């Protein structure tokens, strides 16, 4: 089993930055796929970013390209989401996730096997 613990959320002004962390415990390996999703009030959980093969392939939703960066530190079993130039529309609960198979699309929540508890990110205008 894989347990994911998130941290790094908070309140930030528009244009500011935050770095989210997701620490994994259990049998987590470098070849697992990892992703970040977010859910704003009244909206469905949406894909934000993902990586595969220890970060050799990365993917982003259009709205965050050029602003967000997904990365991982395999030695620490930790993944990160660096968020720069934050906008009020980025306000959401952010979730990290891990999947053990690449047979499903990376942008779908149903493709992932384990989830963090979520961390609130609030961007003020």
Distance between the termini: 40 Å
Number of strands: 11
Average of the residue pLDDT scores: 93
Biggest sheet overview: 7 strands, mixed
State the helicity in percent bands. Answer: under 10%
- Rg calculated over all Cα atoms: 13 Å
In terms of per-residue confidence, which ranges show pLDDT below 50 for 5 or more consecutive residues? none
Can you tell me the overall shape? globular
Order of helices and strands: EEEEEEEEEEE
Relative strand content: over 45%
Count of alpha and pi helical runs? 0
What structural category arises from helix and sheet content?
mainly beta
Highlighted features:
single chain; 125 residues; mainly beta; 7-stranded mixed sheet; 11 strands; globular
Structure description:
0% of the residues lie in helices and 52% in strands. It is built from no helices and eleven strands. It has strands at 2-7, 10-13, 18-26, 33-39, 46-52, 57-60, 68-73, 78-83, 92-99, 114-115, 119-124. The strands form two sheets. Strands 2, 4, 5, 6, 9, 10 and 11 form a seven-stranded mixed beta sheet that branches. It has a four-stranded antiparallel beta sheet with strand order 1-3-8-7, with no helix packed on it. Strand 4 (33-39) and strand 5 form a beta hairpin. It is globular, with a radius of gyration of 13 Å. The mean pLDDT is 93.
How would you sum up this structure in a few lines?
0% of the residues lie in helices and 52% in strands.
């Amino acid at each position: 089993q894989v347990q994911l613990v998130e941290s790094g959320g908070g309140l930030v002004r528009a244009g500011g930055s935050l770095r989210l962390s997701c620490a994994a415990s259990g049998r987590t390996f470098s070849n697992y796929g990892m992703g970040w999703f977010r859910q704003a009030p009244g909206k469905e959980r949406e894909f934000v970013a993902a990586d595969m093969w220890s970060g050799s392939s990365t993917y982003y939703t259009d709205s965050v390209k050029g602003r967000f960066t997904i990365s991982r530190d395999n030695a620490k079993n930790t993944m990160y989401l660096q968020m720069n130039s934050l906008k009020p529309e980025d306000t959401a609960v952010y979730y990290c996730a891990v999947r053990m198979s690449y047979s499903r699309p990376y942008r779908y929540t149903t493709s992932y096997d384990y989830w963090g508890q979520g961390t609130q990110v609030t961007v003020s205008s």
